[in-house]
Every structure is written in structure tokens, then in C-alpha cells.
Design brief:
Number of helices: 10
Largest sheet: 6 strands, mixed
Oligomer: single chain
Distance between the termini: 33 Å
Order of helices and strands: HEEEHEEHEHHHEHEHEEHH
Strand content: 25-35%
Length: about 260
């Protein structure tokens, strides 16, 4: 493994995913170095979730390659998974479990036992401020605490790369503020990719923006560069043709 491969923690090369004649994503390429917080921005249905699932090995691309910390996800999914903490938009949470039980379950599934497991559970529960709800059923928790339990699960094995899909969806303003603070702190020593369609999220947490529209990458640069030709909103509308043509607005909740 070269020095360059080691420093690039997420590399996507010409990723495409087709469902028959439907193009979910096409020819998406980018490289994210160690210690960078990147916002994966785009309208609903732009291809963000599909890309996230390919990066984490949950979905195979029709074409292209992903490496995580130099490990080819397609060729060695389990080794790549050890380097990734993944927080999907919904789950995986079990309503009958407490956060404590959830973390123990996932820790054992990842091969943690004994003192090492207890230490990691203590570490992530403190990190995600779960002490007040540690023994309460997840099904009875607020959306904010459910997200914190999900984040603790993603951090349990101390991954180098953290991938989150719409992490603040459904949170109230106070919960969003707290969650963004968590992301900024985690970004000090982890590589983070956050899928979002919320422009404020970009300014709040991101060092860099990847903007996808209709399955293609249309911008790769800093938030400041994204605003050079106007506000974030104006540039977003222009790059996604939002409102410029009949039918340009993406359908809500297409989940691709």
C-alpha cells in the first residue's frame, strides 16, 4: 500500500449503479483524505443514499471501485467494514433493547469481549451522552437520543472512517446543534462523510462539499468556493437546475 493510498481514506473511482434503464448514479469519482469532514450534498433522489450504500459495501456498483483506507471494498468487504462506522438514515436500532443492550450486541458481533467491550461501551456512551437513557428501551427514546444510540453503535469499534446518511433528519433545533457539535469533535481524528440535503449543515460542519445531482457529481470544493458566485442557496439551485425547467425539482423520498 502506497503512502498516498494510506492518506486517502475514501476513494471512489467511476462509480455507477443502474437499475434496468434507471440511472441511480453514473461515473462518480472522488478521494477524501484522512481527517477531513465532507458534506455529500444534493436534492432528495440525487443518488446520495445509493453512493453511501456502495461505499459501505451494502450495495455492489454496476461499475467502478471503492477503497477504504486502501482496502478494496468489493474484494475484501469485511476488512473494509472494520475501518467504517456507518449510521444509516433509519436504524439499525431495536426498539426492545436498551442502548446498553444494543451496544453489547453490536460489540459482540464485532468480536469485542470482556474488559475491551466494557471499555468501548463506556467510552462511546460517554461520548454520545447516553447516560440518562442507558437502560431505557430504545423504542421509548426521543429521536435525538435514538440518533445518539445509532452514532454510539457506529463508533463502537473505533473506526477510522465515519459515514452518516442524513444524520440530523427529524431532529429539533437543539438536537441538531448538539449533533453538529459531536460531528465537529469527531472530525478532529476521523474521516467523516455526511450525506445531507440541508444547506446549513454544510456551513456548520464541512471542510469540503461534494454536490451530486441526477446521479452525477457536479461540484467538488470547499463551502467557500461553493458560495463564490452567490449564496449557498443560489449556487445549489443553479447547479441542480432547481426550478429552472419543468419537472426539475426531485421527488421527495425516492431514497436513491
Amino acid at each position: 500500500m502506497s503512502h498516498d493510498d494510506y492518506e486517502v481514506m475514501i476513494r471512489a473511482e467511476s462509480l455507477s449503479k443502474y437499475y434496468g434503464s434507471f440511472v441511480a448514479i453514473e461515473d462518480v469519482s472522488f478521494a477524501i483524505p484522512r481527517g477531513e469532514v465532507v458534506a455529500f450534498l444534493g436534492p432528495n433522489g440525487a443518488g446520495k443514499t445509493t453512493t453511501m450504500k456502495i461505499l459501505t459495501g451494502y450495495l455492489a456498483p454496476s461499475r467502478g471501485q471503492v477503497t477504504i483506507g486502501g482496502v478494496d471494498v468489493g474484494a475484501n468487504r469485511l476488512e473494509a467494514a472494520r475501518k467504517i462506522g456507518y449510521l444509516p438514515e433509519n436504524g439499525p436500532l431495536y426498539d426492545d433493547m436498551t442502548p446498553h443492550e444494543l451496544l453489547r450486541f453490536f460489540g459482540e458481533a464485532r468480536g469485542l469481549t470482556g474488559a475491551a467491550l466494557r471499555d468501548r461501551i463506556k467510552r462511546v456512551s460517554d461520548q454520545c451522552a447516553l447516560e440518562l437513557v442507558f437502560e431505557k428501551p430504545i423504542g421509548k427514546l426521543s429521536r435525538g437520543y435514538r440518533q445518539r444510540a445509532g452514532l454510539a453503535q457506529a463508533l463502537l469499534h473505533d473506526p477510522e472512517v465515519l459515514i452518516m446518511d442524513e444524520p440530523t433528519a427529524g431532529l429539533d433545533p437543539n438536537q441538531i446543534r448538539d449533533f453538529r457539535k459531536d460531528i465537529r469533535e469527531l472530525g478532529r481524528d476521523k474521516t467523516i462523510l455526511i450525506s445531507t440535503h440541508i444547506l446549513q449543515e454544510v456551513e456548520a460542519v464541512a471542510d469540503r462539499v461534494l454536490l451530486v445531482h441526477n446521479g452525477r457529481l457536479v461540484f467538488d470544493g470547499s463551502p467557500e468556493e461553493l458560495k463564490e458566485s452567490g449564496s449557498l442557496e443560489e449556487t445549489f439551485y443553479r447547479l441542480t437546475d432547481y426550478g429552472h425547467a419543468p419537472g426539475a425539482a426531485p421527488a421527495e423520498g425516492r431514497g436513491v
